[in-house]
Amino acid sequence: MNRFAKPKQPSELGLRVSRGVVGGKDLLRVELTAPERPPLTPDLALVLDRSGSMAGAKLQEAKAAALALLEAFPERGRVAVVAYNHEVEVGGLDRKAARAYLEALKASGRTALHAGWRQGTLVK
Questions:
Q1: Do the beta carbons of residue 70 and residue 35 sit within 8 Å?
Q2: Whole-prediction pTM
Q3: Model confidence band, residue 3 (pLDDT cutoffs 50, 70, 90)
Q4: PROSITE patterns annotated for this entry (predicted)?
Q5: Which of 11, 23, 70, 96 has the fewest Cβ atoms surrounding its Cβ within 10 A?
Q6: Angle between helix 57-72 and 95-104 (nearest 10)
Q7: Average pLDDT of 68-82?
């Protein structure tokens, strides 16, 4: 999901230079302007440990933080939730499904940290 938009052609910058004297001091003002572009679509992959060691308050706090982040994330953004214990599961590939997936998440199993984080980088 780590993608950066690359321009198809070089951008043109606007340049405006002005100078003046203020309080006996020479001042030079340089202003650069860039062409208007549509905002990029942000991507967010929430990766949560759902192993047995996260049971109780730990998982509840992680879920609450993930839900708050989901609510604050721009509507135009794409989201995914990756939860792992000894297995990795990708759920919630849209905002509504992500919310439902997070709310239903339960702690169980062993921890395979590397597999969970790796899958979070691969979600498309």
A1: no
A2: 0.62
A3: low
A4: VWFA
A5: 23
A6: 170
A7: 90
Q: Which residues neighbour 4 within 8 Å (Cβ) at sequence distance 6 or greater?
A: none
Both tokens of 13, joined, read 């910058």
Q: Is the predicted pLDDT of residue 16 greater than 60, yes or no? A: yes
Angstrom distance (rounded) from CA 116 to CA 34: 40
> Mean pLDDT, the chain, as a whole number?
85
Amino acid in the structure at residue 46: L
Contact assessment for residue 77 and residue 41, using Cβ atoms and an 8 Å cutoff = yes
Q: Which residues are within 8 A (CB) of 31 and not within 5 positions of it... i.e. 6 or more apart? A: 14, 15, 16, 17, 18
Contact criterion met (CB below 8 Å) for 43 and 3: yes
CB neighbour list of residue 122: distance below 8 Å, 6 or more residues apart:
none
Token pair, residue 47, equals 């990766």
Three-class SS of residue 72?
helix
